[in-house]
Amino acid sequence: MKKSVARRLLVTLVLVTLLSGTLYLVMQNFRDNLVFFFSPTEVLDTPEKASKRARLGGMIKEGSVKIVSKSEHRLRFAVTDFNKEVAVEYQGFLPDLFREGQGLVAEGYFDQKSQIFMARTILAKHDATYMPPQVEEVLDRHHGKDSLAQNKQDSQGQVSR
Predict the structure, then answer these.
(1) What angle do CA 52, 54, 59 make, to 5 degrees?
(2) For 28-41, what is the mean pLDDT?
(3) How far apart are CA 59 and CA 129, in angstroms?
(4) Residue 161 lies inside a defined structural domain of this protein
(5) Is residue 109 exposed (0-12), middle (13-18) or buried (19+ Cβ within 10 Å)?
(6) What is the pLDDT of residues 75-86, one digit of tens each?
(7) Are 54 and 110 in contact (CB under 8 A)?
(8) Strand 36-38 with 54-60, pairing
(9) Domain total of the chain
(10) What CA–CA distance (Å, rounded) separates 79 from 40?
(11) In a shared domain, residues 76 and 4
C-alpha cells in the first residue's frame, strides 16, 4: 500500500474513533440527565417509572402542608391532579411563592416502599396566573378547565407555611 493511502486510512480511523467516543459520552450524559414529568396519577399507576429521577407536577392540596421537623426544615404535603394525590416530602427552604392550592413541580424520586415522593427541588409558580404548561395540561385532563380556573381564583392571596 502507498504511504499516502495508508496515512489517509489511519487519519480516517482516528477521526472515526474520536467521533464515536465523543458521541458515546454525549449520549451517556444525556441519558443520565434526562428527567421525565409525571402527574400524581401516573406516579401511582406506574411507580417504577418515577422511582428514579423524575418531576412531579400538580396542585398543592389545601390543608396538606405539615412540618415534619422545624429544625431540619423538613415538611410533607400532598400534590394532586384532582384524580389522585401523592405525598411529597421536602427538606430545605421553600420558594417564597409556595402556597396551598397553587401549582408546583417537584424534582426528586418516588420511594415505592413508603409511597412518598422525595423532592430535592421545588419549583413554585411565578405569579398569580402562571402555571407550568405540563401541569396545566395534566390538570385539564383530569379535572376540566372550568374547575381549574375557579381554583386559581379561590386560592389567590392565601399563604400557608
Answers:
(1) 140
(2) 82
(3) 13
(4) no
(5) middle
(6) 999 999 999 999
(7) yes
(8) parallel
(9) 2
(10) 7
(11) no
